[in-house]
Amino acid sequence: MTWSRHRLHTGDEFRAVIRGGGRSARSHVVVHLTLLTQGEEAPRVGFVVSKKIGNAVVRNRVTRRLREIVRPHLATLPPGSAVVLRALPGIDEQPFAALRTDVDSALATAERKLAARSPSVR
């Protein structure tokens, strides 16, 4: 699967997702979810992994792990939706299974919050 059609590209897109929609936080990750466009556009995802997480090697590893956790959710997210996952300090020490549980839970909560804000979702 190619990620290019599922990526958020510009800072404006990231800001739009973070400022609108539903947000849910867990101990090591924050998930922001919103609808950018109405239509059949594929869901899009962006990752924010700051230098507080670690050096470039650690940040890239965290991004790869988050990407693999989000990949199965792309089929279930509403068309036109966008997700930003923001890593918090300590995420690099989390076991993959625990991180997956946190992201899955936070994404489900963000979807519920988005649905409550805009009934047209799902």
From TrEMBL:
GO terms for cellular component: ribonuclease P complex. InterPro entries: Ribosomal_Su5_D2-typ_SF, Ribsml_uS5_D2-typ_fold_subgr, RNase_P. One of its GO terms (molecular function) is tRNA binding. One of its GO terms (biological process) is tRNA 5'-leader removal. Keywords: Endonuclease, Hydrolase, Nuclease, RNA-binding, tRNA processing. It comes from the Bacteria. PANTHER family: RIBONUCLEASE P PROTEIN COMPONENT. Belongs to the RnpA family. HAMAP family: RNase_P. RNaseP catalyzes the removal of the 5'-leader sequence from pre-tRNA to produce the mature 5'-terminus. It can also cleave other RNA substrates such as 4.5S RNA. The protein component plays an auxiliary but essential role in vivo by binding to the 5'-leader sequence and broadening the substrate specificity of the ribozyme. This is Ribonuclease P protein component. It comes from Brachybacterium vulturis.
